[in-house]
Design brief:
By secondary structure, the protein is an alpha/beta fold. 41% of the residues lie in helices and 14% in strands. It comes from Cucurbita moschata. Keywords: Transferase.
């Protein structure tokens, strides 16, 4: 395939907050090197980005980043959490639009397209790019192990681990030395099996089969991972380009941030605050919401709890909340690095895990869906910088369990020391002329500019 020389990079996230933000950061980093970027989202995501940035949009994006939106086939007010809608209907609706738009951009938009950087879950777009002579890279917002498993379905089938339909032949620990995946990975950790319903698992597996075909066109798989977190997996998979950690950017937020939180944190003792954030998709029932509130009150520690706008749950009777602050959305990176914050209670989305370990904080892990459970295993079993919660028979984490685990982590000085050491190792991945992540980002810049097609270090 003859790769076309051009000046513009097209960036295509999967339509979800945890996928948009890191790709926006990568886009702004490339733009600072003089590369023109067009990020294409669904109209639903595009409208949220514009609303969150408001009148500061031009200042936040800079001169080299433009945003476009494509209709996903559903009204803007309609919920998009349904798994069939997200992974089948919206993808089907977008495909002909991308075929038309990319072909047009490649002929008359600033000299054509230099390359496409595409979220793994939108990997099928690289088939379109390849047909136009446009080279591509895949962005993967997961652990290296999770990413490799997503891209190794044929090997999993040939190794007798799963059937061609994605069902495990038996429930067991996965041993794939050729991929370098850690031995703790179980068949229950396979990416498409981390949702509860069998029908949903089948939809996810079929989606991965679909995107894997496009992913094979990728020069690189870009990860927001510092290589020190998964050195074995990275070393055995040379197409993995580690450029982490990334710092969240205001341009990629889908909700406006609550600035009052920093003023509140300034008034709290050093290391005293439990910061609680469960991501953009976690949905507690009323009973669990009440147990969290009462459990934190029992700890008698200051806490900051991110509760999304639109949440209909009511705080329980008797909840005083005198030591707590509930906010709708914050600059998580600023909060995690504030000296008053001492513990991070997290759903273990990969972006949050990277931000937390980079800040040197111990974790209380509350995984919800998807890759959260595998991410928790890294935090608790490999890096040993956090613990999880035990659930009651009805699946609820009780207030007493919350109190117990907060006190346990708060008093574990060895865990705090491990967290600080890990953060220092991560810092060295980016800082300095010979830092691996900085060198890899420079390779990405040269590749996007058509100056260098070398492989990652």
């Amino acid at each position: 395939m003859a790769e076309k020389k051009g000046g513009r990079v097209v960036v295509i996230p999967f339509p979800a907050q945890g996928h948009v933000n890191p790709l926006m950061h990568i886009s702004k980093g490339l733009a600072k090197q003089g590369i023109k970027i067009t990020m294409i989202n669904t109209d639903f995501i595009h409208s949220k980005l514009l609303e969150a940035m408001g009148q500061n949009m031009d200042q936040i994006l800079g001169p080299n980043v433009e945003l476009l939106g494509l209709p996903d086939g559903f009204p803007l007010h309609e919920n998009r959490d349904d798994i069939h809608k997200l992974f089948v209907d919206i993808m089907d609706n977008l495909k002909p639009q991308f075929e038309k738009l990319l072909a047009k951009m490649n002929t008359d938009h600033d000299g054509g397209l230099a390359c496409a950087i595409v979220d793994m879950s939108m990997g099928w777009v690289l088939e379109i790019a390849a047909s136009l002579g446009v080279k591509g890279a895949i962005f993967t917002p997961f652990t290296a192990a999770h990413s490799v498993l997503n891209l190794s379905l044929n090997e999993l089938i040939e190794s007798g681990i799963i059937t061609p339909e994605g069902t495990p032949v038996e429930e067991k620990t996965i041993e794939l030395e050729s991929l370098g995946t850690p031995s703790m990975i179980h068949t229950s950790d396979l990416p498409w099996r981390c949702v509860p319903l069998k029908n949903s698992q089948k939809i996810l597996f079929d989606h991965l089969v679909r995107v894997q075909r496009g992913c094979h066109y990728a020069k690189w798989y870009i990860l927001i991972l510092p290589h020190v977190l998964e050195p074995q997996v990275v070393s055995l998979n040379p197409k993995l380009l580690t450029i982490g950690p990334l710092i969240a950017t205001e341009a990629g937020q889908l909700w406006k941030e609550d600035d009052s939180c920093i003023r509140w944190l300034d008034q709290q003792p050093a290391g005293s605050v439990v910061y609680m954030a469960f991501g953009s998709s976690t949905d507690f029932n009323q009973e669990q919401f009440e147990e969290i509130a009462m459990g934190m009150e029992l700890t008698e520690r200051p806490f900051m709890w991110v509760v999304r706008q639109g949440t209909e749950h009511q705080l329980p009777a008797g909840f005083k909340g005198g030591k707590g602050k509930i906010v709708s959305w914050v600059s998580q990176q600023k909060v995690l690095n504030h000296p008053s914050v001492g513990i991070f209670m997290s759903h273990c989305g990969w972006n949050s895990v990277i931000e937390g370990v980079s800040s040197g904080l111990p974790f209380l892990c509350w995984p919800y869906v998807g890759d959260h459970f595998l991410n928790m295993k890294y935090v608790t079993e490999i890096w040993k910088v956090g613990i999880g919660f035990e659930r009651e028979v009805n699946g609820v984490v009780s207030r007493w369990e919350i109190k117990k685990k907060v006190e346990l982590v708060g008093g574990d000085e060895e865990m705090k020391d491990r967290s600080r050491v890990l953060a220092e190792e991560i810092r060295r991945c980016w800082e300095g002329a010979d830092a691996p992540s900085a060198l890899n980002f420079d390779r990405l810049v040269k590749w996007a500019k058509q100056e260098d097609d070398d492989v990652a270090v």
